[in-house]
Amino acid sequence: MSWYWIVPLIIIAVLVIIFVVNQVVSAHLKQAATGKEELYGKKALVKTPLNPEGKVLYDGEIWAAHIENGSAEVGQEVVIVRLEGLKLYVKMERSE
């Protein structure tokens, strides 16, 4: 085999190794998003009026919800502040 084949193959192999190592390191450094901690601060869409109880849609799932301040109409976005059992406690999203 000549150097015209060996050098490009070595370069390609090194680039592939660097890419794989980079992906593995970034996967390990990324914060795991599981459990109820994942919900805090996320936005949910109001499906039935929250006055103060109702239903919201988060990540394709309908949740029972309780709004902590005021009320919310269908279609508005709310922010999840805590989870107790299977009920989300939400507040109105601040508009800036």
Automatic annotation (TrEMBL):
Q: Where are the transmembrane segments?
A: 6-25
- One of its Pfam families is NfeD
SUPFAM superfamilies in UniProt: NfeD domain-like
Q: Where is the NfeD-like C-terminal domain?
A: 37-91
InterPro entries the record matches: Membrane_assoc_protease, NA-bd_OB-fold, NfeD-like_C
- Which organism is this entry from? bioreactor metagenome
Q: Where in the cell is it found?
A: Membrane
Per the record, membrane topology reads: Multi-pass membrane protein
Upper taxonomic lineage? unclassified sequences, metagenomes, ecological metagenomes
The cellular component terms of Gene Ontology attached to this UniProt record, alphabetical and capped at eight, are: membrane
The name under which this protein is listed is NfeD-like C-terminal domain-containing protein
Coiled-coil residues: none
Q: Which UniProt keywords apply?
A: Membrane, Transmembrane, Transmembrane helix
